[in-house]
Amino acid sequence: xxxxxxxxxxxxxxxxxxxxxxxxxxxxxxxxxxxxxxxxxxxxxxxxxxxxxxxxxxxxxxxxxxxxxxxxxxxxxxxxxxxxxxxxxxxxxxxxxxxxxxxxxxxxxxxx
Length: 112
Fold this sequence. Notes:
By secondary structure, the chain is mainly beta. 14% of the residues lie in helices and 38% in strands. It has 2 helices and 6 strands. It has helices at 83-87, 97-107; strands spanning 8-12, 24-32, 37-44, 53-55, 71-82, 90-94. A 6-stranded antiparallel sheet has the order 4-5-3-2-1-6. A hairpin with a 4-residue loop joins strand 2 (24-32) and strand 3. The longest helix has 11 residues, at 97-107.
């Protein structure tokens, strides 16, 4: 398994976003408890709030994310999950370049 680290994007079947019947991409924002848990934020096609971050498919660094199209990082959909749960998902990619810098500024801290 790829070791989880902040700035990575994974596709997870569980947990689900709201009443969704399918999995979603998530961004790892923190690694907690000596790697036993990670903090994730959901990524969705449509925004849920005015301050969600739009990840444009033409942004510098988009290709490295593994995402397929423009989507939104949801500020109010943050969860702590066990690393084993993340391992059941699929590693998609990582934030890089200007896109990473913009998301870190929006998030309020660097993904180091």
